[in-house]
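Q: I have three molecules that I believe assemble together. Could you output structure tokens for the complex as a whole instead of separate predictions?
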Amino acid sequence: MNNLGYACINMTLGKKGILTGRAMRKSTLDAKGLPYASQLALENAKDLKTILEWNVDHGIYFFRIGSDLFPWGNKIDITKLPDYNEIVKVLNDCGDYARANNIRLTTHPGPFNLLASDKEEVVLNTILDLEMHSTLFDLLKLDETPFNKINIHVGATYGNKEVAIYRWKQNFKRLSLSCQKRLTLENDDKESMYSVKDLYDSVYQDIGIPIVFDIHHHNFNTGGMDHSEAMKLACSTWPKGIRPIVHYSESKALHENNNKIKLQAHSDYISDFIQTHDNDVDVMIEAKAKELALLEYRKKYNI
DNA sequence: CATGGTCAAGTGGCA
DNA sequence: TGCCACTTGACCATG
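A: Yes, here they are, computed for all three components at once.
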């Protein structure tokens, strides 16, 4: 195993008001407009640097950037933000810092990003959101490869997986090349949806999108493969020279012995050793306690 | 100032 | 039929 990372929020810094997730409701955007969106984006960008520095101070070189850095960035023209030039400078600086310190940055746009949708409006919204993430990566001067992945799910079947996958692949072609080159697909956490094997057979074999293996999700949708087989297959889809990423989380319902919680929900901390079956991977820990869970894990297993 | 309901977005599973 | 879960809580009105 190489890098251990965490997602979007630093609890320690968050308590001090340092975060990249300043957001607002639509009503607030309507009331306050671009100047306020600009102010939030600038504060978010500045805090990203602080979080990256904190990470380096704590030996963490893998971080997922949240989707709210540009509040409403998928619906507004961010180049029209009053502070746009300054925001770009700050993001350029964050990117330089990441490169200099060998930090791997990724994103995970929300479950509303459905390239397989049968509704054109949903697809258009998805394209806008994915392109916003890609533009953010451009401003950070990150690679146009899945080293800096923009990761999504297929996420829905519309009653016919084959047709949905076909639409997914058609709509994928509508993305900019730089966005396409960063995109990865993750296995879903429902039996009815897409396992690693589904993604491999129906998408990777056709258009070569790398597969992110989510170990927790696999428990709910194995596609007939055990963990070791599925992880190996997923890892085989990554380009040479780019370390595959796997996601790791544990069940909140089991941790808290509470059957009212869905088994899929993520626990605050993780307790089991992360088995990577000798694959050379970076592991994104998806735990509600964020970097605290990562630090606890390293302490527990002395790594 | 703390709390709790609500918030942009899509889908599917379940009580 | 309406909540929960997913990428993630944070916003905002109210007391």
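A: One point stands out. Chain A has one domain: 4-300.
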